[in-house]
Design brief:
The complex is a heterodimer.
Chain A lengths: L1 E5 L2 E3 L20 E3 L1 H17 L2 E8 L4 H10 L3 E6 L8 H11 L7 E5 L10 H9 L3 E11 L2 E7 L4 E7 L3 E5 L11 H7 L4 E5 H4 L8 E7 L8 E2 L4 H14 L5
Parallel strand pairs in A: 1-4, 1-6, 4-5, 5-11, 6-10, 7-10
Antiparallel strand pairs in A: 2-3, 7-8, 8-9
Helix pairs in contact in A: 2-5, 3-4
Chain B lengths: L1 E5 L2 E2 L2 E2 L2 H16 L2 E8 L3 H8 L5 E6 L8 H15 L3 E5 L2 H13 L4 E11 L2 E8 L4 E7 L5 E5 L17 E6 L10 E7 L12 E5 L9 H11 L2 E4 L1 H5 L20 E5 L5 H4 L7 E6 L12 E4 L2 H16 L1
Parallel strand pairs in B: 1-4, 1-6, 4-5, 5-11, 6-10, 7-10, 13-14, 13-15, 15-16, 16-17
Antiparallel strand pairs in B: 2-3, 7-8, 8-9
Helix pairs in contact in B: 3-4, 5-8
Classes of the chains: A alpha/beta, B alpha/beta.
The complex binds flavin-adenine dinucleotide.
Flavin-adenine dinucleotide sits at the interface of chains B and A.
Chain lengths: 256, 327
């Protein structure tokens, strides 16, 4: 199976974020990491390849710093990488990212495309589904298991509140992967070394530009959400905090 | 100008979260003066259409086809695309459920439009409607505007509006049945039955006190600390999703949209950031205590009592104090 994994670089989970001068985006001088569900998508692609053979290709759209995500993927075992490199990709809505990916892979023939189910920054949860529609492929979202089956694959979709559903679908297809579908591996030293010699294709914005359209969604303003609830904060050294909280639990919450 | 709410039915039952979206849509309709209509998509779902027609809406469409009996994204888009092209609503609203996440981006794309997903509210700025949504895992909110022709697509997060505040109509709204023409060959996915994984060992919905741990607990062995606290309080231990994903606790102890929904007397969140998917599972708790080293963590949005600090320093003395207080 030939699998493409779409990956995104996002600010690190506990990176302190600040607004930039425009007030519509964050200051970009923070630490970044791979979007967590995308890491699971990559792991799943590597496992499928180990079971069924084939090739795993990773793709990202973003400035030069986003290359790090591809390097890590190559070190973990991906065979090659595609980097749509331009700072402008950060401002694209999900539809334009999907259009850019579709344009960048039009000469390729994949059986499966994986994305994480959503990104930790925008959280739109749309890129994979839009990409499927642009390619005319079937899709399934929030996937927790993938098996080869008669005429295609059988996937396990997560539903709400602990429910699941199996879905049979033909190939090629797009799947959006849920965190926890597998256990992530670490890159090995050998892997990191080998990654340096693996093929990396750079795609300039100009190459995919003809396939893009104007963004239809426009973030007018970004801001720290207003607190609506009055939280009583207990402050002080741990011993004091513990004593005050225990008192409250006894006298106000009445659970002791 | 017209708003269309697509309510959600699953296996022939109305998903009550649809009423939250209807409440939001009624508020937008009041402010804009736009008409409000609703639609239900399925096979033999007239009863749901009648239930929705009891709310304050101008009309309800019952979009029917045998191909819509089981949910598939192909059938839903095949039914809704021509319907929306004909009815030309200005705004299409849906709840941000797993089902909607599965087909709505495809539907909007098929119509050449964009979807602003997972919104917590809206604002009217002059003639413009802005949709408010969380970004960066709740650390920021964004006002998002549409830069295109209608229809505009938006989905609302669970809890964005009060479903119990949906306005009833003076008299039942008219229902129009629409037969969708979907060839069987259009459906590529073959869905199986909906099922629940192996039986649950614990029922946290009955617990009076819950101590929940998140990724802030760092390592599996540190769970012992949280267990000591749960024991001292006489409560159950639970967790955020990453802890269960890692296999440190079984999935029946996961709180949130893909786990359990609980409402104990006391919910103690240790090292949990407060992502919306976690919050929906515990915000009904009577008292929420949060311990987090990050004063900006969204969990403090829902906490009644907050402690900004290192859980490894706070819990040991707390266990002692609780034992003392219990005598
Ligand atoms: C479709 C879908 C369904 C989901 N379903 C669920 C669900 O059912 N339940 C669920 O929980 N999540 C669910 N999630 C995941 C959710 O989005 C979050 O990723 C998850 O809840 C984060 O878990 P966390 O708060 O433990 O980890 P993080 O977000 O990593 O937060 C860890 C927190 O610990 C704090 N911390 C770190 N060290 C310390 C310390 N020493 N002392 C005190 N505090 C510390 C940090 O400041 C941080 O706030 C779902 C996601 C999706 C997309």
């Amino acid at each position: 199976m030939k699998i493409l994994v779409c990956m995104k670089q996002v600010p690190q989970k506990d990176a302190p974020l600040k607004l930039n001068e425009s007030g519509a985006w964050i200051r970009e001088d923070v630490s970044y990491e791979v979007n967590e569900p995308d890491a699971y998508a990559l792991e799943e692609a590597l496992r499928q390849k180990e079971k069924h053979g084939g090739e795993v290709v990773v793709i990202t759209a973003g400035p030069a710093r986003a290359l790090q995500v591809l390097r890590e993927a190559l070190a973990k075992g991906a065979d090659r990488a595609i980097h749509l490199e331009d700072a402008a990709f950060v401002t694209f809505d999900a539809a334009n990212i999907a259009r850019a990916f579709a344009a960048a892979i039009k000469e390729e023939k994949f059986d499966l495309i994986f994305t994480g189910l959503q990104s930790d920054d925008f959280g739109f949860a749309q890129t994979g589904v839009i990409l499927a529609e642009l390619l005319g492929w079937p899709h399934a979202t929030i996937i927790m298991q993938i098996e080869k089956a008669e005429g295609g694959i059988k996937v396990k979709r997560e539903l709400e509140a602990g429910y699941f559903q199996h879905v049979d679908m033909p190939l090629p297809a797009v799947l959006t992967i849920q965190s926890g579908i597998n256990k992530l591996r670490y890159a090995t030293l050998i892997g990191i070394k080998q990654a340096k010699n693996k093929p990396l294709r750079k795609v300039a914005l100009a190459e995919v530009q003809p396939s893009l359209a104007a963004n239809q969604l426009n973030i007018e303003r970004l801001y720290v959400p207003q607190k609506t609830k009055k939280t009583e904060m207990i402050e002080g050294p741990p011993a004091d905090v513990a004593r005050k909280l225990a008192e409250k639990l006894k006298n106000e919450v009445r659970v002791l | 100008m017209k708003i269309l709410v697509i309510v959600e039915q699953r296996e022939g039952k109305l998903n009550r979260v649809s009423f939250e979206t209807l409440t939001g849509a009624q508020a937008i309709a009041r402010e804009t003066g736009w008409a409000l209509e609703a639609a239900v998509v399925g096979s033999g779902v007239g009863e749901i259409a009648r239930e929705v027609a009891g709310k304050k809406v101008a009309k309800v469409y019952d979009i029917e086809s045998p191909q819509l009996a089981a949910y598939t994204p192909d059938a839903f888009v095949a039914a809704l695309k021509p319907f929306l092209a004909e009815k030309k609503p200005t705004l299409v609203l849906m709840p941000h459920t797993y089902q909607v996440r599965d087909f709505a981006p495809k539907l909007a794309t098929a119509l050449g439009r964009a979807l602003v997903s997972d919104c917590t509210g809206y604002k009217k700025k002059g003639d413009k409607l802005l949709f408010v949504r969380q970004m960066f895992q709740g650390k920021f909110a964004a006002d998002v505007a549409f830069d295109s022709e209608p229809p505009y697509f938006a989905t609302f997060q669970t809890g964005a509006f009060r479903g119990d505040q949906v306005e009833a109509g003076a008299s039942p709204a008219a229902i129009e049945t629409v037969q969708a023409d979907i060839p069987a060959s259009a459906l590529r996915n073959k869905p199986g039955e909906v099922f629940k994984e192996a039986k649950q060992a614990v029922d946290l919905t009955q617990a009076q006190i819950i101590v929940a741990v998140g990724r802030g607990i760092k390592e599996e062995k540190n769970l012992a600390l949280a267990r000591q606290l749960a024991e001292a309080l006489g409560g159950e231990i639970a967790a955020s999703r990453p802890i269960c994903d890692a296999g440190w606790l079984p999935m029946d102890r996961q709180i949130g949209s893909s786990g359990q929904t609980v409402a104990p007397k006391l919910y103690v969140a240790l090292g949990i950031s407060g992502a919306i998917q976690h919050i929906v599972g515990m915000k009904g708790s009577r008292t929420i205590v949060a311990v987090n080293k990050d004063s900006e963590a969204p969990i403090f949005e829902v906490a009644d009592i907050g402690i900004v600090g290192n859980l490894f320093e706070v819990i040991p003395p707390l266990v002692e104090e609780i034992k003392k207080a219990k005598g």
